[in-house]
């Protein structure tokens, strides 16, 4: 899926995020809910407006899943299989939401990392996150 150089770019950006997963994740979710209000359907437990503590907690979980994917780029299917099952079979999240999440995540990365999130990094992260979304949606078939 990714070349050695692309993997290095993913890891480089992840190193900048590591330790700040809750904040990045909460901002990602808040942006997702604001830009695409229909996605809030799956997060009613967060409240309206979202409870900050719960938003940080769920944001942490979302970014931790991305961290698992970063650590297991060679075998995303095996690493994310339980998460894919959860989203497809239990939560029944519409798979059209994953590209929306990817788009919002890239905006959050660009806004925080600015010059460190180069065009090349954005292209690689788009490729990586799209691969992650493909794995998460495979259980829908």
Task: Describe the protein.
- The protein has 141 residues and is mainly alpha-helical.
- The protein has one domain (4-140): Globins (Globin-like).
- It contains 6 helices and no strands.
- The protein has helices at residues 4-17, 21-35, 52-71, 76-90, 97-113, 119-137.
State the helical fraction.
over 70%
Largest beta sheet, briefly? none
CATH homologous superfamily identity:
Globins
The best one-word shape is globular
| Global Rg | 14 Å
Please trace the helix and strand order, writing H or E for each element.
Answer: HHHHHH
InterPro entries: Globin (IPR000971), Globin-like_sf (IPR009050), Globin/Proto (IPR012292), Hemoglobin_a-typ (IPR002338), Hemoglobin_oxygen_transport (IPR050056)
Family: Belongs to the globin family.
GO molecular function: haptoglobin binding; heme binding; metal ion binding; organic acid binding; oxygen binding; oxygen carrier activity; peroxidase activity
Protein name: Hemoglobin subunit mu
């Amino acid at each position: 899926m990714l070349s050695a150089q692309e993997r290095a770019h993913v890891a480089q950006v992840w190193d900048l995020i590591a330790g700040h997963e809750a904040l990045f994740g909460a901002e990602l979710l808040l942006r997702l809910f604001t830009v695409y209000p229909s996605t809030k359907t799956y997060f009613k437990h967060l409240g309206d407006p979202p409870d900050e503590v719960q938003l940080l907690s769920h944001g942490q979980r979302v970014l931790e899943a991305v961290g698992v994917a970063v650590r297991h780029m060679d075998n995303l299917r095996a690493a994310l299989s339980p998460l894919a099952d959860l989203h497809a079979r239990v939560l029944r999240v519409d798979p059209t939401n994953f590209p929306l999440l990817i788009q919002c995540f890239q905006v959050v990365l660009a806004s925080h990392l600015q010059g460190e999130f180069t065009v090349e990094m954005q292209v690689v992260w788009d490729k990586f996150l799209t691969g992650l979304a493909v794995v998460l949606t495979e259980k829908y078939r």
